[in-house]
Amino acid sequence: MPGRIAFQGEPGAYxxxxxxxxxxxxxxxxxxxxxxxxxxxxxxxxxxxxxxVENSTYGRVADIHRLLPSSGLHxxxxxxxxxxxxxxxxRGAKLANVRxxxxxxxxxxxxxxxxxxxxxxxxxxxxxxxxxxxxSERGDPSVAALASDLAAEIYGLDILARHIxxxxxxxxxxxxxxxxxxxxxxxxxxxxxxxVFRVRNIPAALYKAMGGFATNGVxxxxxxxxxxxxxxxxxxxxxxxxxxxDDRHVQLALDELDYFTSEIRVLGVYPADPRRR
Length: 277
Known about the structure:
- The protein is 25% helix and 36% strand.
- It has helices at 14-22, 34-43, 64-67, 112-117, 128-138, 149-155, 205-215, 248-259; strands spanning 4-8, 27-31, 48-55, 59-60, 74-82, 86-89, 100-103, 121-124, 143-147, 158-161, 171-178, 191-199, 220-228, 231-242, 261-271.
- Helix 7 packs antiparallel against helix 8.
- The mean pLDDT is 92.
- Its EC number is 4.2.1.51.
């Protein structure tokens, strides 16, 4: 049995699209919040969690990096999903008659130019797929939703304008998480190692900690900081690097990092998505 993969949102959400693209053989399980997605996997209601972490236009997804270290789950894969935004209306609606468009807050700046050009007022909805469902239920041709092709299919809506995002490379990166870690080498585009760490309270600790990656030729593709437990003095860092912990140059870099940190925790070792390049 392929099992289930949990995602945040209603059927037709972009996370649902990611599930279909990356794990088409698994049953997609909609959840209300990111915490619910994680809990579904922890309890065994689903085998995998599909969590968005960043968008090429909007930036990082709030709260995700805070949730990952305490989730008890392990990153086992990543997915780069091309986000196409469509204007969806009820059957027979016309673009010229649309005055309002419902969507999640993060989608509004991704298609701002289109909305301004057509004089459409963007209204915030908790979820893009929910926006599509509400438009379908209201039956008002002047109200549309900004959502995926999948949402149009599920809720019986017409696509009034297709692929209206401002940037033609609009992409969201997702992480797939499991109860069990998988350190096997797999995939065709190399491996990624993700971890969190806290630096020791000594001068230039972060600078010194990062030096080991440069001197050992390890490419760090992401480094982000965020506060822990609301404290301005307790800063945790999240990092992605190219390579496997068993690679000699990665081992040396992590050993040097360990000397300047009070804590290091590997969140996952997984194959790079070919679209990362």
